Amino acid sequence: MFEKQIEIPSAEEILSEIPLSGELAAIKAERDALAKDVIAGRSDKLLVIVGPCSAHEAAPVLEYVRRLGRLNERVKDKLVLIPRIYTNKPRTKGVGYKGMFSQPDPENRENILKGIYAIRDLHIKAIGESGLSAADEMLYPENYAYVEDLLTYVAVGARSSENQLHRLVSSGIELPVGIKNPTGGSIPVTLNSVYAAQSPQVFKYHNWQVATNGNEYAHVVLRGRVDHYGNDIPNYHYETVMQVFEGYAKSEELKNPAIVIDSNHSNSKKQFRQQIRIVEEVLQNRLYDADFKRIVKGFMIESFLEEGNQKHDIVFGKSITDPCLGWADTERLILDIAEKA
Fold first, then answer.
1. Residue pLDDT, tens place only, 49-66
2. Phi-psi region for residue 130, left (φ > 0), alpha (ψ -120 to 50) or beta?
3. Residue 16 falls within a domain, yes or no?
4. How many domains does the chain have?
5. Of 54, 166, 255, 272, which sees the most CB atoms within 10 A?
6. Could you tell me if residue 3 is inside a domain?
7. What is the pLDDT of residues 108-159, one digit of tens each?
8. pLDDT tens track for 276-331
9. What is the rounded average pLDDT for all residues in the chain?
10. Which domain holds residue 307?
């Protein structure tokens, strides 16, 4: 049984009601081009997709992106900083808090219409206040249309990467789409997902049969894997990265070989301070091997104003989902990445 609660306007109606200004659209277009150039190998800069596990409240996220915007001025010659503003991300088990899109007040019940307005307002303010356009996770493909004019980077999570609709929608996105390896860690499955996203497709989307041209900026994100016993197994090490490199090399169809290393999740076993060590190891491997350096295009880092996490929204700027690095460690890490990039 489905109980109808709130009628949700179409994405076209919402975008018309809350548009992105021409000035901010120009900033986003410039940021899009920078990110695409990294994935395509036209730029030697590194992408750094960094920010809270879940954007649960606007004020601390905006404070975070303002700081990131100022830091960007110090590292923009070496890095492309993309704030992580994940507005769909729920708790791991999918019960309780479900992300700002569904639950704009984390302490109250779901209100998706209010959430859509909240996330558009947040993304627009973030661009205006930091000069940086953001990354968001495409947890629900149908929701992407409500933010498609606001993002510079789209992530497809480990539990979604094998889903056909996620692959098909990714094929119509004209931005870098990072597709994480599935939780089981299969590299061939991950590359199959990238291949599907890079290929032209025809499918049903928002009550239309649509056709896409394929997205040449779809690429692999390595986030670690989980074995049959529930143990986290990292896959950021040299050997796995080079397996992906070889998988790209064997395929004549895949374009723009690229890997982004997710420094948290199963790579760190959610031990958030380990992200620093993981990034440092990857940077060292980039010095050792030219092919490794060529294919590793950047990092995903979970970070917020305050380190760690909390169950309820009490401490300003502290995650209510997975634990994150604090700002001081984040700033030092980003400056170090820029120095070694």
1. 999 999 999 999 999 999
2. alpha
3. no
4. 1
5. 54
6. no
7. 889 999 999 999 999 999 999 999 999 999 999 999 999 999 999 999 999 9
8. 999 999 999 999 999 999 999 999 999 999 999 999 889 999 999 999 999 999 99
9. 95
10. 26-340
Q: How far apart are CA 157 and CA 63, in angstroms?
A: 26
Phi, psi (5° rounding) for residue 193?
Answer: -65, -40
Q: Are 217 and 34 in contact (CB under 8 A)?
A: no
* Mean pLDDT in residue range 76-89: 94
Question: Do 173 and 188 meet the contact criterion of CB atoms below 8 Å apart?
Answer: no
How sure is the predictor about 107, in pLDDT bands with cuts at 50, 70 and 90?
Answer: confident
Q: pLDDT tens across 221-276, in order?
A: 999 999 999 999 999 999 999 999 999 999 989 999 999 999 999 999 999 999 99
11 in a domain, yes or no?
no
Alpha-carbon distance of 65 to 82, in angstroms, equals 9
CB contact set of 335 (below 8 Å; sequence gap of 6+): 71, 74, 75
CATH code of the domain containing 85 = 3.20.20.70
